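Input/output pair, single chain:
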Amino acid sequence: MAQLQRIAIAPSQIQETLITLTKEQQHYLRRVLRLNAGDRFIAMDGQGKWWLAQLQSEQSQILETLTVETELPVAITLMVALPKGNGFDEIVRYCTELGVTCIAPVLSDRTLRNPSPQKLERWRRIATEAAEQSERAFVPTILEPVAFSAGITANQATHRYICEGRGDYPHLNNEIKSNSPEIVIATGPEGGWTEAEIENAIASGFQPVSLGRRILRAVTAPVVALTLISAIYEV
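Output:
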């Protein structure tokens, strides 16, 4: 099992054995995922095609075509406001089983703690174990925690959603487009997002959505969101 980072690309970016990366993709690979020239990653087009690629400068070299049967045909980045206690352990374990691509912990206005570096190592170990148990082809990426304001600008995917338990927002089920190759979805802390956080997310391109009529725990909401998305893509 390989622990490789993944990004979604458009088919038009491929010319023979080269992938031309957009400025946003270059920033994401180098600054967010911290890859260097020569490092390998997975490119996926959201239509079931996967490639092993090697990062160069503004382009990447396709090394081989991959056959993947256990992964979702969409790259899902889950942005989670860190819950109290060891709740994030559960989130990493269950969302890995459900097919998440990347988990990005964020520190929100209502986050109660700032995790230690040892926590990050623990989360990555849990992700590896959960991926093995669920027979996934790849281990999800667990990013270092950042402030919510930085997290909402790190990934510029076209389809980005922020889940909010209160407010008259459309249900996630009615907003997900099953042909999107990449989705970013954010779930909040105990007590929910603040009004300012929702406003900042909307200004950054996020669409507020509901996960249903009930108020979910901070640990439950990410699992529900991933379940809804995987159900749409795996029918």
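The two ends are 26 Å apart (CA to CA). The longest strand covers residues 59-66.
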